[in-house]
TrEMBL record:
InterPro entries tied to this protein: IPNS-like_FE2OG_OXY, IPNS-like_sf, Iron_ascorbate_oxido_reductase, Oxoglu/Fe-dep_dioxygenase_dom
Lineage, top ranks: Eukaryota, Viridiplantae, Streptophyta, Embryophyta, Tracheophyta
Domain Fe2OG dioxygenase intervals: 105-204
Name of this protein: Gibberellin 2-beta-dioxygenase 8
Organism: Olea europaea subsp. europaea
Family: Belongs to the iron/ascorbate-dependent oxidoreductase family.
Length: 249
């Protein structure tokens, strides 16, 4: 998977941006941040953010897409299992909720590349954020740079290529009514070495209503579509994601 990912990023810029190669939907390839207001809001990275509905059943014609499909099949099984365990630990009986709402076709894979950055002390590889999903399964290479907030402090996640990193996302945060915390994370820019990572986002269909599994809920109900829209609008207007604060009751 990583080899195919590296090949995809090696393509000339105009091939990546015109959306024809490697045949993902228009807009899957992104670089930087959509509308930064100042330098520190510009992520020093490029990514393919791919809806699995684009690649499922693509057959063997494109090596990247069929590799992604195989990767997704394995990782989605793991994501489902983890979600089930997390629900069970909450004492909730929603054993089929994730199987029914987070189909493979509604999930996403994001391939990230962080090029070397000559002004690494002024930039992030990826701006601080939380993920807008139920949970994320992340694989990073040996370079390091991922950091997360623990007890109010930014700490580095030691790179380990033999391990997967599991992040709770905003939707589980709401669903568990603040029991599982959506983790703030970011990637430091690196002056000397490029870095790659691959993320699988467990997402529901856009119509799914997100609400806490217990009452009284700290958040108002919203659809996943509404949440994505709000996040996109905020990023466009302010240069950053406001996130769950918008939905607090
Ligand atoms: O590259 C990483 O380690 C983090 C990637 C990430 O947070 C994301 O794609 O949402
Ligand atoms: Fe993330």
């Amino acid at each position: 998977m990583r080899t195919e990912q590296m090949k995809a990023f090696k393509k000339p810029f105009n091939e990546k941006t015109n959306g024809n190669d490697p045949k993902f939907s228009m807009g899957s390839y992104t670089w930087g941040t959509p509308s930064p207001n100042y330098l520190r809001q510009l992520s020093w990275s490029e990514a393919y953010h791919v809806s699995l509905s684009d690649i499922l059943g693509s057959g063997g014609l494109c090596t990247l897409r069929s590799t992604m499909e195989q990767f997704a099949a394995k990782v989605s099984e793991l994501a489902q299992k983890l979600a089930e365990i997390l629900v069970e630990k909450l004492g909730q009986n929603y054993s089929t909720f994730f199987k029914e709402t987070c189909l493979q076709s509604t999930c996403f894979i994001r391939m990230n590349r962080y090029p070397t950055c000559p002004i690494s002390n002024q930039m992030f590889g990826l701006m601080p954020h939380t993920d807008s999903d139920f949970l994320t399964i992340l694989h990073q290479d040996h370079i390091g740079g991922l950091q997360l907030v623990k007890d109010g402090k930014w700490i580095a996640v030691k790179p380990n290529q033999q391990a997967l990193i599991i992040n709770i996302g905003d939707l589980f945060h709401v669903w568990s009514n603040n029991v599982y915390k959506s983790v703030h994370h970011r990637v430091a820019a690196n002056k000397l070495q490029e870095r790659f990572s691959t993320a699988y986002f467990l997402c529901p269909s856009y119509d799914t209503v997100i609400q806490s599994c217990v009452e009284p809920s700290a958040y108002r109900k919203f659809s996943f579509r509404e949440y994505r829209q709000q996040v996109q609008n905020d990023v466009k207007c302010f240069g950053y994601k406001v996130g769950l604060a918008r939905f607090l009751l």
